[in-house]
Amino acid sequence: MKEKQFSCAIFIQELETLNRLTDLLSRFKSIKICAILNNTFEAIETLSQDRISILFMNTNAMEKMQFVHRPHFIVGICNKKESKHLKKWLDSGFIDFIFDPIQENDFNTVMSKILTLCHFYSYNSKQDNMIAEENFNLYNKNFDSANKQRESIIVQGNNKAEKIRIFIDELLFIKYIDDKTHLFYNDGTEQILKKRLKYFSNTLPEEKFQRISKSVLVNVGKINNISKKWIIQVGNEYFTVSRTFRKILKSKISSL
Q1: Is there a contact between 56 and 106 (Cβ–Cβ < 8 Å)?
Q2: Beta-carbon neighbour count of residue 21 at 10 Å?
Q3: Which of 57, 60, 92, 149 shows the greatest Cβ crowding within 10 Å of its Cβ?
Q4: How far does CA 30 lie from the centroid of its chain?
Q5: Residue pair 97/78 in contact by the 8 Å Cβ criterion
Q6: Beta bridge partner(s), residue 152
């Protein structure tokens, strides 16, 4: 069986970053670099005509491409000083971003996310048929070994065809608001799913997640601080732990 390939284009001006990116991409047999774009005109021409699945580009070039056909996955390359614009980038179409200079672990984490979605939904094929979950490991062999070992779960999205992979180490906490669950992640992003909190209580690893009230479920390993009055800090949020859950939460914290 011939392995599925995904087309990729790169729109990066800095030569050192470009060389680093092409070297890292060459390690993924399922990725084919179809175009290295030197300017906005080339980007418009290529993206308008070709079926590109993944695009790597400088974050500051997005505004020039607002009227161009966009690939399914756009990864922004930026420096750490620009990280305050994360929400704006995500809203404008980036699936994720990598700080420059590019670190291999950061690159592999992003590629793991993208290829997971690619293989589940077959984005680069003419038919958007979802690949069976039991066949996923066949396609997963090119992932970095560290990413293979990252613990994750797969949950159903807001429709029957949608499958979402959640990496345990990226999830901070979950809040149940107005009959929907809001998932909050390390990078400041939020995901909303039409499911009850009990679904995640039963699905996520019991030893790593704990309900602390009727509407909040937290990643125990992400608790930064806990006061004598049972107020805990997770990320930038503070929650009061209900009496019902204090003993079991204390036990889980102690066992970490």
Answers
A1: no
A2: 23
A3: 57
A4: 19
A5: yes
A6: 167
pLDDT in tens, the chain (256 residues): 445 678 899 999 899 999 999 999 988 877 889 899 888 788 877 887 767 889 999 887 776 665 566 787 889 898 877 766 777 777 777 888 898 889 888 898 888 888 777 655 544 444 433 333 334 344 344 444 444 456 888 887 787 767 777 888 889 999 999 889 999 998 888 889 888 999 999 999 999 999 999 999 999 999 988 988 999 999 889 999 999 999 999 999 887 7
Residue with tokens 């990643």: 219
Distance CA 97, CA 79 (A): 10
- CB-CB contact of 212 with 249 (8 Å): yes
| pLDDT value, residue 65 | 62
- Distinct helix (H) and strand (E) counts, the chain: 8, 15
**Cα separation, 28 vs 215, whole angstroms:** 42
Residue 44 phi, psi (nearest 5): -65, -45
| C-alpha distances in Å from residue 116, one per residue of 106, 139, 147, 151, 183 | 16, 9, 11, 14, 19
Bridge partners of 58, per DSSP, are 77
CA 184 to the chain's CA centroid:
12
